[in-house]
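User: What would this chain look like folded?
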Amino acid sequence: MSHRFIARTEEDTITLAENLESAKFPNMVICLYGDLSSGKTLFVKGFAHALEVHDDVTSPTFNIIKEYVGQLPLFHMEVYRCGDDIECLGLEEYFTKKGVVIIEWADLIEERLPKERLDIHIQVLDNDARIFMLKPHGEKHEEAVEAAI
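Assistant: Here's the prediction, encoded as structure tokens.
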């Protein structure tokens, strides 16, 4: 089942991320889909802040994967520039490291994503407003969305 959330401000996006963080669990995988400037990294910042990550969270465009320490490890990935090099990242290992994985541009590696995950499609309405379509795959992700929305 899909769930819809409308964020009219950046604060609404952060609130959604914080609410999802409160329902986190080890090996949670969140896949973000959306155009440039749709709010993917802002969502990750909100999630990380609620996870008590004290580092500055930035887009991992050139790093591809950034690891943060919080209540659980946070593995923030942006796979936009990976191309065929995705094989060398050991991506599948991150899905079992007992942390939370958040992947920006997940549509580029869909065939490598775990079956159980939360897909979040972000649609830009205007400068501030966004529609978040949350589609959980698997019972734990469904429960997390139900608790957050």
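Residues 94 and 147 are 25 Å apart (CA to CA). If you want, I can go into more detail on any region.
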